[in-house]
Amino acid sequence: MSTPGPILVLNGPNLNMLGTRQPEVYGSATLDDVVQLCRQTAARYGREIDAFQSNSEGALIDRIHRARGIESGIVINPGGLTHTSVALRDALVIPELPIVEVHISNVHAREEFRHHSYISPIATAVVAGMGIQGYAAAIEFLIHR
Ligand SMILES: O=C(O)[C@@H]1C=C(O)[C@@H](O)[C@H](O)C1
């Protein structure tokens, strides 16, 4: 049986600033730390990841379109686009690709406007509040589902 394709790990706006941006909320780990954690988690099971981060909605959508036929699942932290983007939600409706939405912080314990996600209704699973371990949990879920 062939090994499933890589898992695509997507990070949206401002997540390139991890480690510097509000460490009291998002912790001290950098985006590179997140990608390394995801890569190491997948490698334990002989699997690979592809990682992409953009502050631009359109670039994220273009990358999601390219995942078809290449990646086997998507782990996405949409950043603030979580709470605003119908276009990103629409791009993620890909029947053959499972989607896990990840938030480092517990968005439900924060400002009201962070309590709604356009992505959650079309996601296979949602992780929030686990810090960067949420990315590892998402990778594990996709590998073992
Ligand atoms: O917790 C997180 O990873 C999410 C990250 C962001 O940048 C915020 O806009 C979201 O509201 C929460």
From TrEMBL:
It is an enzyme of class 4 (lyase). Its EC number is 4.2.1.10. The record marks 21 as: Transition state stabilizer. Pathway: Metabolic intermediate biosynthesis; chorismate biosynthesis; chorismate from D-erythrose 4-phosphate and phosphoenolpyruvate: step 3/7. Pfam families: DHquinase_II. It catalyses: 3-dehydroquinate = 3-dehydroshikimate + H2O. Substrate binds at residues 77, 83, 90, 104-105, 114. Keywords: Amino-acid biosynthesis, Aromatic amino acid biosynthesis, Lyase. The active site is at 26 (proton acceptor), 103 (proton donor). InterPro entries: DHquinase_II, DHquinase_II_CS, DHquinase_II_sf. The keyword Lyase applies. GO terms for molecular function: 3-dehydroquinate dehydratase activity. PANTHER family: CATABOLIC 3-DEHYDROQUINASE (PTHR21272). Catalyzes a trans-dehydration via an enolate intermediate. Homododecamer. Belongs to the type-II 3-dehydroquinase family. This is 3-dehydroquinate dehydratase.
